Amino acid sequence: MDEVKIEHAPPAAVEYLALRQIAGLSPMSREGAEIGLPRSLFAVCLREADVLIGMGRVIGDGGCFFQVVDIAVHPDLQGKGYGKLIMIEIMNYLREAVPARGLVSLLADVPADRLYAQFGFEYTSPKSEGMWWRQGE
């Protein structure tokens, strides 16, 4: 990991969309990425020779609610601790930024849920269940 550069800024929309796609995350629109990325509360990018190899963001209202999103590592580099490095950076931010009783949530794809559990994230069920709505094409 010595060759990896850590940046605390969101990626450009084009590289964000490309990493989401290659990492198997759901597709987003370029329009949405261009609107949303600059509004991140916190972002971390991992780069090798200026190429985006990993990322993660925190979004929300900055006071009561925070959501961890876009955790992605290039498939060729998964299993090398980069996801954990991204989460360490995010947790450092959250520990400083989240006020008392602030709620941090995320949607965990399996098997990434094991990574998030290492950082204290717990399943909400059966007390509550995650739900979502997505705008059509």
TrEMBL record:
<feature type="domain" description="N-acetyltransferase">
    <location>
        <begin position="4"/>
        <end position="137"/>
    </location>
</feature>
<dbReference type="InterPro" id="IPR000182">
    <property type="entry name" value="GNAT_dom"/>
</dbReference>
<keyword id="KW-0808">Transferase</keyword>
<dbReference type="GO" id="GO:0016747">
    <property type="term" value="F:acyltransferase activity, transferring groups other than amino-acyl groups"/>
</dbReference>
<dbReference type="Pfam" id="PF13508">
    <property type="entry name" value="Acetyltransf_7"/>
</dbReference>
<dbReference type="InterPro" id="IPR016181">
    <property type="entry name" value="Acyl_CoA_acyltransferase"/>
</dbReference>
<dbReference type="InterPro" id="IPR053144">
    <property type="entry name" value="Acetyltransferase_Butenolide"/>
</dbReference>
<protein>
    <submittedName>
        <fullName>GNAT family N-acetyltransferase</fullName>
    </submittedName>
</protein>
